[in-house]
Amino acid sequence: MRVILVHGGVGVKPTPERQAVLRESALTGYQALECGLLDAVEGAVRVLEDSPLFNAGYGSELNLDGEVEMDAAIIDGYKGRFGAVAAIKGVTNPVSVARRVLEDSPHVLLAGDGATRFARKMGFPEANCVAPERRDDWLAARWGQERLPSGIDTPASPFFGLSPTQGQAGGQAPDCQIGCDTVGCVAVADGKTAAASSTGGWFMKWPGRVGDTPVLGGGIFASRRGAVVASGLGEVFIETLAAKLVDELLEKGLPPQEAAAEVIRRLGRREQGFGGVVVASVDGRVGAAHNTASFPVCLIIDGKVVEEFEAVKVDS
Ligand code: GLY
Fold it and tell me: 176 pLDDT exceeds 70?
């Protein structure tokens, strides 16, 4: 059985334009399965990174300084090999840099200037990651920021990327129009698994802040049992090792949908515990759960887009 499951981030309004890009991402990933699982998850995530409609790569939200700093990771669940970058700047496809970390370095995680230098050494050219829409969000939020006494308590959403002009500040998951969180993909083929994830992180985050996306067991995990990627408030995913917990529940025999729902239920009991996970088990079953306004996904099984598949909203 061959499976590709991609997501566009929690809180992301599933507009026709976004659904079309998600579908393209899943189809690209599925076609790349011919070359291998890592090609598939990397290829799927690259499509989402190239779109200004998702918070990753070119569509990344800006940090407090008006810069884009991105996190990305990729994992081979069969071999147990992992590569990640954190707070990297000036590349449009950080997931591909993460793959080079996995395949062409002795390390598993490179951060900040070192990650950017590594990308240049690997031949990734300097690239503009600031989409005009994201710059506009930042300018609007900064205008509000100037009226605050301290820098870190931004009046903009600390997470979902909404500017004050949209009137939805605060930690509750809003019905996001333009800002959003993290993209990712899980894949299964020939009894093996892989996953990849990429994000611009919090809108107006503190420079240097790293979320769950490049943290093994926090926002991403894969094993010989299954693969999982997360979207949501990264700090809580790290503190609860949410992605690893999904894998442990698969090991206990829970079906992927139940494992996903249980982890989101537990997450929801924590302050700011907003998010979602997508899961695929090595036998080709899948799950997707969240506790936010929306969590667009696209699933392909054995070459067919499963139109009716949706992430399940879970109450805490
Ligand atoms: N989930 C993405 C982040 O918190 O950075």
Answer: no
